[in-house]
Amino acid sequence: MSTPETNITHIARRMLSAKAEQFTESVIREMTRLALKHNAVNLSQGFPDFAAPLEIKEAARQAISDDINQYAITWGAKPLRDAIVQKFHRTQGLTIDPEREITICCGSTEAMMSSMMAIINPGDEIVVFEPFYENYGPDAILSGATPRFVKLQPPDWTYDEKELAAAFGPHTKAIILNTPNNPTGKVFTRAELEFIRDLCVRWNAFCITDEIYEHILYDGTEHITMARIDGMRDRTIVINGMSKTYSVTGWRVGWAIAPPETTQAIRKVHDFLTVGAAAPLQQAGALALSLPQTYYDNLAATYATKRARLLKILEQAGFIVYKPRGAYYIMTDTSRLTLPQKYRSSSETADVSFARYLVEEIGVACVPGSSFYNDSRDGASQVRFTFCKKEETLAAAEARFAHLHP
Ligand code: GLN
């Protein structure tokens, strides 16, 4: 016999979406909340804790004063679309049409979701490299795609060509690429992109390529957009945004660049999801994207210093580190570190216990490795740290790691 309580649970269950039940809240965002709760140094979520460039902030203030306060055109303010065209041409040598090939969205997160919803049909599969940025899991579930995972193997995060080829098939609608990669820092080479291209062409698949870290590169690495690879221009959706390049993750301005027919579908989904991104911030974006090359050189140089700093801190603390070639994360292996008895648990994977121990007792927040894998056991000995933080934040983390015993 059911009690009133179980009845309520039962009714509540029936009322909720089966899709939403298939994924959990974002672990990355949760770690930031835990960092605040425990007053820990937050090296979990990838957002800068330093100021955005003065001229970009001034442009946003000016836009509001100038009364750019109503809806922009749903697929994006013209000045920002024009700035994207110019920048894409300057950095990647490709000419795109601002009227037919760009959709400005509320962050690259929405650009990715709108793109997926614009191309996925029931029965479609997508190929996803793992470890992957955690959003791609829920993106797949909500759009209705079945993911086929392909491993990137440490320490260089290379993929096995046979494994990748086997993941493609007649139901493949797209491959999701993220280069420079979160969480591994891998930057896909031209040869790798060409191998992926051959599979996309063979199986008539799209490539959705998340290039949000395009300017955060080390050791002379070059970012090549998949759209530039011969034969891929018409089957590539490029996802990008202002967040990481201009240190404005809270502005939520991102975009999708895609061929006209695909863009038409993306624009429709986007319009009914969000109507549009913040108009004054799009206006400021036009200025941001016109900054000179020196801005991007400085950005990469600043992050190179922070990368070296955090690599050293983590190595000294006893982590095995995987040196990133791009983006601003360091994947680590924790197997040389011991977890206090009270944190050993059979109900969660070791990375989650380790992250809890680190945030609660050591006072540093990281992201458990399992957040980046389909099978949580695959990430059980890994945790991710970010170094998009002020020197004083990194120094505070260093001091706290002194209490960690290898
Ligand atoms: N990309 C960031 C990360 O991986 C977070 C982005 C977000 O939380 N929306 O930490």
Q: Write down the Rg.
A: 21 Å
Count every helix, treating DSSP H or I runs of 4 or more residues as helices: 14
Binned strand content = 5-15%
Structural class: alpha/beta
User: What characteristic shape results from the CA principal axes?
Assistant: globular
Tell me how many strands there are: 13
Q: What would you note in describing this structure?
A:
- The chain is of the alpha/beta class.
- Helix content is 42%, strand content 14%.
- The strands form 3 sheets. Strands 2-8-7-6-5-3-4 form a 7-stranded mixed beta sheet, sandwiched between helices. Strands 9-10-13-12 form a 4-stranded antiparallel beta sheet. It has a two-stranded parallel ribbon with strand order 1-11.
- Strand 5 (172-178), helix 9 (190-202) and strand 6 (206-210) form a beta-alpha-beta unit.
- Helix 4 (54-65) packs antiparallel against helix 11 and helix 12 runs parallel beside helix 14.
- The chain starts with a helix and ends in a 5-residue tail after the last helix.
- The model has no long low-confidence stretch (mean pLDDT 95).
- Residues 28-29, 45-46, 109, 133, 182 line the site of glutamine.
